[in-house]
Amino acid sequence: MGFSxxxxxxxxxxxxxxxxxxxxxxxxxxxxKIIRIVLIIIALILVLAAVFTILAERWAFSYWRTLQIDExxxxxxxxxxxxxxxxxxxFIAQCIVPTAAIMLxxxxxxxxxxxxxxxxxxxxxxxxxxxxxxxxxxxxxxTRLDIGTYLKNQNADSDFIETKYVDPDDVEITFPEQKRNLxxxxxxxxxxxxxxxxSGGGFSENVIPELxxxxxxxxxxxxxxxxxxxxxxxxxxxFTMGGLFAQTSGLPLQVGLKAxxxxxxxxxxxxxxxxHFFPSITTIGDILEDQxxxxxxxxxxxxxxxxxxxxxxxxxDYKIKDLIYAEKKGWIRNxxxxxxxxxxxxxxxxxxxxxxxxxxxxxxxxxLTLLTVDTHFEDGFPCEYCGREFGKNQYAxxxxxxxxxxxxxVEWIMEQDFYENTTIVLCGDHTTxxxxxxxxxxxxxNRRVYTAYINSAVxxxxxxxxxxxxxLDNFPTTLAAMGVQIEGDRLGLGVxxxxxxxxxxxxxxxxxxxxxxxxxxxxxxxxxxxxxTEEYKAYLERHGVDTTSLTNSSESxxxxxxxxxxxxxxxxxREITY
Length: 578
Fold this sequence. Notes:
With 578 residues, the chain is of the alpha/beta class. It has two domains: 23-145, no CATH class; 183-250 and 283-508, 3-Layer(aba) Sandwich (Alkaline Phosphatase, subunit A). 39% of the residues lie in helices and 7% in strands. The protein has helices at residues 30-63, 69-76, 85-113, 119-144, 147-154, 160-164, 209-217, 240-249, 284-290, 308-314, 323-329, 345-360, 394-414, 474-481, 504-508, 510-516, 521-527, 534-542, and strands at 173-174, 181-187, 294-299, 319-321, 366-371, 422-428, 451-454, 485-486, 490-491, 494-495. The strands form three sheets. Strands 4-3-5-2-6-7 form a six-stranded mixed β-sheet, sandwiched between helices. The protein has a two-stranded antiparallel sheet with strand order 1-8. The protein has a two-stranded antiparallel sheet with strand order 9-10. The longest helix is centred in the N-terminal third of the chain and has 34 residues, at 30-63. The chain is globular and about 90 Å long.
């Protein structure tokens, strides 16, 4: 140490010293050594925390520029099964490897510095810099993620969802005598933003011209304006499973499950440990199943990711045809995947054509629901059919490619005999999480998902209204487009956009977003989450959580009976006129 040194006098006595400079000549005591080792370990731990905090934050916000805290909690609590390898590889390359390299260097320097008198100063600087970096990193994340508001919302219970929710079981839903088929395509990360400004988009050059034309020629609820319109994405619907859930149930996938690792409303991937996925709610899949529809969920990735297979099996008894199904059929080999998620979309559409022809031969009506993947962030997955019309901007090239492929698939459907009695819905699952694709979009521009209703059985009651809506409104609107009559024109938190009924967003605006960010006891209740399943216990144990307090008693379970809301509160906050 750089303290004073003492010099021993007499036989073996070391009870006095002549000067501070002679202090180091005496062998440090055992306690001295232990303290030094502990200080070094603490310093290295602080440095590790500092380095990892900065690198992880930098990676996360470069990968997801519009990252939100509920998305982080959702995906942190998610099993890795089905996760795209590019995400994991990027995290390892940009966080784990640099952290390990920097820690190795700092460790060597720390050990080497012990030889010199300035070691204490070096160690002190190490402490101060590490703490400063941690504070700056945490403060930056706190601000960018608005964690303060998030935590405040967790302590603020809201009955908004409960009072506005319309239970489909309490509503008279009448199907036409000849039931229409449905083809519903969830377009990964597809926004109307990618169109040019003249067409309602936010780009100077139209990246999705084919989809733009398709939207303008059909229904996107832009009224008399010759431009695109699309749905806002609400909290709890900003990621794929949340988007699928919102558009088919009229509810946000946001709930604060008690007994979870993260006590937050975004930790919903734990549903993958359950035997049921919101079993007491009624979704569009349930309604169509009751009407005798054959239903298929078709996707090029693993349906197990985020509990998608559990949700669609339970709500509508969909036949799941995903990457695992494709491998069994020999469409693609696991060792030769098209991308880190699975199959390219061109393969998906090719096999979907065969599926449609097969479904059309049956006597029952059908619902084919598809989910694309090529346009997944970061930068998408270019296939052999993608051009380079946007040069080095790979994501733009993939979006343009997707625009052509989706439109060609829709045009193929239009040529089939079953098209006359088939409604097609195209909708982005959520806005893109790509880090920089929308950097040049005007900050005042309202980004929304691409939306188009094709070959609808009905037309809007108001031909002039440019509707302000969210993806929650897709639930009743899709049924209405199939010629279904809905008592009150409301289901879940959604409104039939073909009617004159105002949407929740038209009435409450940003207040709707704020309320959906709050904790909801109602959502906790209808989730019917069971913390006593073996899968959930194993999940907790993998995260180092003690499970001895979990029992199989009924007190540890959420009540299975859904609380009735009869009727939902009317929407009367402000009058909407068209």
